[in-house]
Specification:
With 235 residues, this protein is an alpha/beta fold. It contains 7 helices and 10 strands. The protein has helices spanning 14-36, 48-56, 60-65, 88-95, 114-127, 182-185, 198-210; strands at residues 7-10, 39-43, 70-74, 76-78, 104-106, 137-140, 165-168, 177-180, 190-194, 226-230. Strands 1-10-9-6-2-3-5 form a 7-stranded parallel β-sheet, covered by helices on one side. Helix 7 links the parallel strand 9 (190-194) and strand 10. Helix 1 (14-36) packs across helix 2. It is globular, with a radius of gyration of 16 Å. The N and C termini lie close together (5 Å).
Length: 235
Amino acid sequence: MSNNYSDIHILDSPESAATALAERMINQTRTAIQQNDRCVWAVSGGSSILKLYNALEEFDDELKSFSKKLIVLWVDERAVPHTNESSNFGKAYKQFWRNYENVRLIPVPYHKNSDRAAREYEETLIKNGIEKDGIDITILGMGTDGHTASLFPENKTLKEENVKVLGVDDPSVEESRVSLTFPFINASKSIYLFFYGKEKAETFQQAELSGEINTYPVMGIDKNRMEIYSDQHLT
């Protein structure tokens, strides 16, 4: 495994890895609020993030204590209404965020046209003072194909160098998506990659050996800013 990553944390179970990451996030959030009077999270969709929300419930009192100064946006979203069961925001709100009414949530707006949704989302982020380097903590997962956010293998979005938010169409998924791009993601002050299970560990190791972003988009994340949390030893 490359030693170029900011840090690699291997725990004995997915739950332990999620708890360690949750504690790291809470501590960093506290520091950011003390220094800047606010903290901005960018959270991914997918299944792994739901386990992280379970871990964050252990820090309920502290999270509520600074929730008025926490802003949460979404790394990616499907082009479906928030009430749809496949909506990243909808699932996260139902499971977790509805318990934190003081947190400023900024979901991706719903439009059938994902390009329109992406443009509107970027405008909303700017109105909320979230410019390219305005994210304190970005949480990413990874698919078994090596994709992260909604940036898929061989997709033209992987080459984007300027636009912060894009509509994404890909043959591997049913719905169009909206996703932050690598320039925006990699400008985050801290990036955490959370994945668990043998299959994803093998994918990540293959990605490391390949180093090809076009084949394994997870390789597009800035190693110098990314910490890894997993339950699998990475050799």
